[in-house]
Design goal:
Elements (H helix, E strand, L loop, with lengths): L7 E8 L9 E8 L3 E5 L6 H9 L8 E4 L2 E5 L2 E2 L7 E4 L11 H10 L10 H8 L14 H14 L4 E5 L7 H17 L4 E5 L2 H7 L2 E6 L2 E7 H5 L13 E12 L4 E6 L2 E6 L8 E7 L3 E4 L10 E13 L2 E11 L2 E8 H7 L6 E6 L7
Parallel strand pairs: 3-9, 3-10, 7-8, 8-9
Antiparallel strand pairs: 1-2, 1-4, 4-5, 5-6, 10-11, 12-13, 12-15, 13-14, 16-20, 17-18, 17-20, 18-19
Helix pairs in contact: 2-4, 3-4, 4-5
Length: 366
């Protein structure tokens, strides 16, 4: 095994298959100790097992887990789970039913890491917007409220690392959309690394900075989210809803039309207005199926977004010879487009060609 590196989360796990289970895990990860890293993959790919090893709930003699060179698991021994400076948020809130919401939070504070303070009680309350439910017992809380209390409780342990195991999986779509803004606020506020397990690409795009893709207990891809999603030849580029992430600053809003404008790489893109404000830094998701390519601007088109770009790469689809995937660069920002092979031929698409990417504002997902 490689030696861990300063200021990194090192996770090396070798869990061979047994007579009781055919599942094996073999990963060697060196992850940033800041921001949000998503562990992404289908059910059974090993995401939760990795979190359990990091938390000390699973033990393997052939594993090494350390954060900033503080070793929690090695061949020499293992730090018990309760002594690891970790906050863990499960799919279910797992709150103590006999305690009020505030009682759950106060319990967490009793086992907080007294050597550091990443966030204060009142700040957690405001961040998760739970002041109005502190006196209620878990049985009287909605699923979203329970999860917000669970997240607050994990933060008040003052952890050096926050593990989140599909915290939205048990919620319906409406509750997911309700709680996502709170998760976004947490990810922006937290000055500790967060490992976020999910099989939802929407959640990963919205929350994560870095991602690790797992399949059958092995890492297949990893990298910065915007970089990984903007490549051809990856599992993501072959998705039906292959997407890229564009980050920028909101520079303009017109409530009359229900639109906001995001500036990135000296260009702007209009999208359906939400809760964002001027000067907010946000991410937009653009699906390749919603991008068309032209060689000149059409000022009489209903499409508002005309992005100057250069063809960087093209890729045929072996399963669908009628389709071509195209990687465009708008400055340094990649955009993926899916066009017919006939269109690619007629436009003579090739590397270095200057084009216009047309994107419907109604198709841009904030």
């Amino acid at each position: 095994m490689n030696l861990p590196t300063d200021n990194m989360l090192c996770v090396q796990i070798k869990q061979p298959a047994t007579s009781q289970s055919s599942f094996s895990l073999d990963v060697d990860l060196l992850l940033p100790n800041t921001g949000v890293t998503a562990l992404f993959g289908a059910s059974g790919s090993g995401k939760t097992t990795i979190l359990r090893h990091i938390a000390g709930l699973n033990i393997s003699q052939h594993s090494h887990v350390s954060l900033n060179n503080n070793i929690w698991q090695s061949a020499e021994g293992s730090v018990p789970p309760h002594k690891r400076p970790i906050g863990f948020v499960f799919q279910e809130g797992n709150l103590f039913e006999h305690l009020t919401a505030e009682g759950n939070l106060r319990f967490a504070m009793k086992r907080a890491n007294t050597g550091s303070s990443i966030i204060a009680f009142d700040e957690v309350i405001e961040l998760m917007n739970i002041r109005g439910i502190l006196t209620q017992f878990p049985a009287h809380l909605s699923g979203g409220e329970r999860q917000r209390v669970a997240i607050a409780r994990a933060l008040l342990i003052q952890p050096q690392l926050l593990l989140m195991d599909e915290p939205l999986a048990a919620l319906d779509e409406t509750l997911k959309q309700d709680i996502l803004p709170y998760l976004e606020a947490l990810c922006h506020r937290a000055n500790i690394p967060i490992l976020y397990v999910s099989h939802s690409l929407d959640e990963v795009i919205r929350l994560a900075d870095h991602m690790v893709v797992l399949e059958k207990g092995k890492v297949t891809e990893q990298g910065a989210v915007h970089s990984l999603l903007g490549k051809l030849g990856t599992s993501f580029s072959r998705y039906q809803d292959a997407s890229v992430v564009i980050s920028g600053v909101v520079t303009k809003q017109e409530k009359q039309w229900g639109l906001s404008w995001l500036e990135f790489d000296n260009q702007t893109i209009a999208f359906k207005q939400g809760n964002e404000s001027i000067n907010d830094t946000i991410r937009l998701r653009i699906q390749s199926k919603d991008v068309s390519i032209t060689l000149s601007k059409d000022n009489h088109s209903s499409i508002l977004n005309h992005i100057d770009a250069i063809v960087d790469e093209t890729e045929s689809d072996p399963q669908d010879p009628s389709t071509i995937r195209v990687r465009l660069l708008a400055g340094n920002t990649p955009i993926l487009a899916k066009v017919t092979a006939l269109s690619a031929h007629r436009l003579a698409l090739k590397k270095g060609l200057t084009v216009i990417a047309q994107i419907k504002s109604t198709a841009v997902l904030a």
